[in-house]
Write a structure and sequence with these properties.
Layout (H helix, E strand, L loop, with lengths): L3 H47 L6 H17 L1 H6 L15 H37 L12 H30 L8 H7 L8
């Protein structure tokens, strides 16, 4: 009976991590296509401004929107794929369990508190923007500044969500269950259906 309880807990924990991973991976793959759109918009802006002597403030501002969306919505995806900069002089030589302990402590002590602080500090700022339906300071700019500022809440939210998944994965690793399927959910979404961030 003592061994049955942990096994029962492993299945829902694994399902939760797979569900979060699937959602974050889907967001990351969709957002990665915005880089292609951004390149196309930059080309249009350059051609119209320097060759056709025409300018569009809204088109120029859309580059900022796309750029912000790629970075702020792609941060959870980058965490999931361990793509953030890491000084791993010692870490790379650690055992699986020691790496799991370092990642678990890092997530609990740094990632979750900082993400929570960003979300809390940004809330009033974003809500104020929505309350007044904030638009661009430029006359012909995009009228969606409040949507752009909403990314300041979505970024820590996705990071917190992926942080929870990472905590659960590391708890499973520390308990000796390192063979749970993390890759299955990724392969179902990421079979080259988008550019890599």
């Amino acid at each position: 009976m003592i061994m049955v309880a942990p096994i029962i807990m492993i299945q829902p924990t694994t399902r939760i991590t797979q569900f979060i991973d699937y959602g974050i991976d889907l967001i990351g793959r969709c957002v990665s296509w915005l880089t292609v759109v951004m390149v196309a918009v930059v080309i249009v802006v350059v051609v119209t401004r320097y060759f056709l002597q025409m300018g569009s403030i809204a088109l120029q501002e859309s580059i900022t929107y796309l750029h912000a969306a790629v970075f702020l919505l792609g941060i959870g995806y980058t965490l999931k794929h361990d793509g953030h900069v890491r000084v791993d002089i010692f870490y790379r030589h650690f055992s699986v369990k020691r790496k799991a302990m370092v990642d678990l402590l890092g997530t609990l002590l740094f990632l979750l508190p900082v993400s929570g602080l960003i979300f809390y500090a940004s809330w009033d700022y974003v809500m104020s923007s929505w309350a007044i339906g904030e638009t661009s300071a430029e006359n012909n700019g995009l009228p969606f500044t409040y949507i752009l500022k909403t990314l300041m809440l979505l970024m820590p939210a996705t990071l917190l969500l992926q942080g929870v998944a990472e905590i659960l994965k590391n708890v499973l690793r520390l308990s000796g269950h390192v063979d749970f399927e993390e890759a299955d959910v990724t392969s179902s979404v990421s079979d080259n259906h988008g550019p890599i961030l």
